[in-house]
Fold this protein.
Amino acid sequence: MKKKKKVTEAMRGVDHIATTTDCWSARRRSFIGVTAHWIDPDSLNRWSAVLACKRLRGSHTFVLAGALNYIYSEFEICAAAPDCYKVELLVHGCRKTPEDRQRQRRGGRQSSLQRLRGSNPKYAATMSPVAKAINILQAETNVQMGWLLPTINLLITKLDRLKLSLKYCKPLVDALQLGLKKRFSHTFHDPELIAAAILLLKFKTTWTKDDTTIRMVFQEWTTSRTTWKNPCCS
């Protein structure tokens, strides 16, 4: 109960809370797990908590919405919902830190890649840089907006190198590169994203050899400085 109260108090002053829900079945029984994620408005630190992990009675299709309402009302994050009831909070061992979840995701991907290396080493070698890039960009700590372009650029470079030595997986690399181009090509022309990467001491300008990209940022800065007027001097 103390943990429930502490979590409720921590979320009370937060305007936006993201929740995740997972349902699964084991031995003809259904279960539901719900987590909450938010950013502290004062410290800007990321926080996460497990709200519930309990038995779900009935078909997922019909009882899921009601179960979520129960859980949300218990933690006072659905004040506008009319059908809110109590939900049991599992206190012992239910809270996971961001590092725990990141290790769990990384472990799942690594075990999958390890199985693939035994059955299809070429496919595993092709997907390995993709899995590493996802690990970086999905991290809950130690990642900023400036990581996006260097990570995607490095992934594209690694796929280009892999393509030279591949025979059967070339169509897979082509599909990955096409998807990356379709999804992220416009981000390499975004001055804010470019500036975010350059301002990170880890990267600076080492992640790109395109002088046009770097000049774009400096031109944007120069334009913004010349057009800005101090209201005190006007």
Notes: Residues 79-96, 230-234 have pLDDT under 50 and may be disordered. The two ends are 59 Å apart (CA to CA). The chain is about 55% helix and 15% strand.
